[in-house]
Design goal:
five-stranded mixed beta sheet, 34% helix, Outer membrane lipoprotein wza fold like, alpha+beta, six-stranded mixed beta sheet, 4 domains
Length: 443
């Protein structure tokens, strides 16, 4: 819920006014600030100042407690404000989700998988000819004296004739002598052979045909990016999986944990970590299809850590994926002197579909991405088991909030500073009075 302007009323101006009130209460006779104070000014008010110091400290404590915006320095928002969904007016609204087994199961089901994006798990169908392919055609006859083999041909290695290689034209056809135009595009070699035999059956002597690909220029697979031998290669007629295709292109340059794979097929694009193909092959190492485009690129996965932890900054995954527990470990764990274990938060944007599955009312939010803050309670012993199952994603943000007692300790130190500042002129006046009394007694 948005935080109103009245909640943040303790502004710089009001703080200055409070300081003036404090000084007036300590030194009511003084009419200007600052000015040099004589010994009489100090000593005349020193007697009453001591009694007022406690009241002034209480006044400051009440002023800070009554203000919505703390004047104490801190590393980020209070954990209670995040958990209650508070945000400044005009800022970005967000949803808070507690990390539970149900939360983890919903996120696991929504993790990117090539097998889910491309649901056809069957091997690709046989390679078919396309416009531009170069094909070779060989025609056999049972005996000499037929349509292609003359009777006076003499000794031959076989009763066949090989036609010149030809390209499938823009209409998808090839030409066969005495057979006319034969449709080739979109057909397998066996289907083209049967068509040739059918048109020559009444002219040649028991004709047979063999059709083969001389130069495959369609049904190609492109493997690009961070591989050792980027290439555009013919699809394997026997079928192969993505890792097999990448291997034919020389494999990735690096070890693979910071590699990403983008697969484009039938105008659809999906991106997954390369490690998902290796460690979860059943879900991600799917069949390669003709005309697929496979692109590998290197991008280190990182997350940012802030708040009451051992270290703060940007951290690399150094693996194809890590859990929230491992992320907290990279941050040095929670700071035992500062952190509130029940206020561990992870910031992430989720799609509207995932947010709805998490039980979030998406009506107040605009756009396809919903800002979500996940709250992990590590005061619960089972919270560490949940942290090991909660998978982090690239560019996540972890924030560990301070315990409330830390802010109280900061306020107490501030009050001690105020009291000490008020006590300094008293000590100085006492010292001057003591020296003056001693000097007078020495005379």
């Amino acid at each position: 819920m948005p935080r109103s302007a009245a909640t943040c009323a303790f502004t710089q101006q009001s703080r200055h006014a409070t300081l003036v009130v404090v000084l007036r209460m300590l030194f009511p006779r003084l009419t200007g600030f600052p000015r040099l104070l004589s010994f009489g000014d100090y000593w005349g008010q020193a007697v009453t100042v001591i009694g007022r110091v406690r009241f002034v400290a209480a006044l400051l404590l009440g002023a800070v407690a009554a203000s919505g915006c703390s004047i104490m320095p801190k590393e980020g928002p209070a954990g209670g404000e995040i958990r209650d969904g508070h945000y400044d007016a005009g800022s970005l609204p967000y949803a808070v989700v507690k990390v539970t087994p149900h939360t983890i199961s919903v996120l696991a089901a929504a993790a990117p998988e090539l097998g889910r994006a491309f649901r056809d798990s069957r091997p690709p169908r046989g390679i078919v000819f396309g416009v531009g392919d170069i094909v070779s055609v060989t025609i056999f006859e049972a005996a000499a004296g037929g349509l292609f083999i003359p009777s006076e041909a003499g000794v031959r290695p076989g009763n066949f004739v090989s036609l010149p290689n030809q390209s499938i034209d823009n209409d998808g056809n090839i030409s066969i002598p005495y057979g006319g135009v034969i449709r080739a595009a979109g057909r397998t070699p066996t289907q083209v052979q049967d068509e040739i035999v059918n048109v020559l059956r009444n002219r040649a002597i028991e004709p047979q045909a063999v059709v083969a690909t001389a130069d495959q220029r369609t049904s190609l697979v492109s493997v690009l990016g961070d591989v050792n031998a980027p290439t555009r290669m013919p699809a394997n007629a026997a079928g192969e999986h993505l890792l097999d295709t990448i291997t034919r292109a020389g494999g990735p340059h690096s070890q693979g944990y910071d590699e990403w794979l983008m697969l484009e097929r039938n105008n659809r694009r999906e991106i997954v970590p390369f490690g998902a193909l290796v460690y979860e092959p059943r879900l991600n190492n799917i069949w390669t299809h003709p005309n697929d485009t496979i692109f590998l690129y290197r991008e280190s996965q990182t997350f940012a850590g802030f708040g009451a932890s051992g270290q703060q900054g940007q951290f690399n995954f150094d693996a194809w994926r890590i859990s929230l527990a491992e992320g907290l470990g990279k941050m040095g764990g929670l700071n035992d002197s500062l952190a509130e274990p029940s206020y561990v938060f992870l910031y992430r944007g989720e799609t509207r579909e995932v947010a709805a599955a998490l039980g979030i009312d998406c009506t107040p939010y605009q756009g396809p991405i919903i800002p979500v803050v996940y709250n992990l309670n590590l005061r619960d012993p089972a919270g560490y088991f949940l942290a090991t199952k909660f998978q982090m994603r690239n560019k996540d943000v972890i924030y560990a909030s301070n315990a409330e007692v830390v802010d109280v300790a900061k306020a107490m130190n501030f009050f001690r500073l105020v009291v000490a500042t008020a006590n300094d002129p008293i000590v100085m006046a006492t010292n001057v009075f003591t020296l003056k009394t001693t000097a007078a007694a020495a005379k």
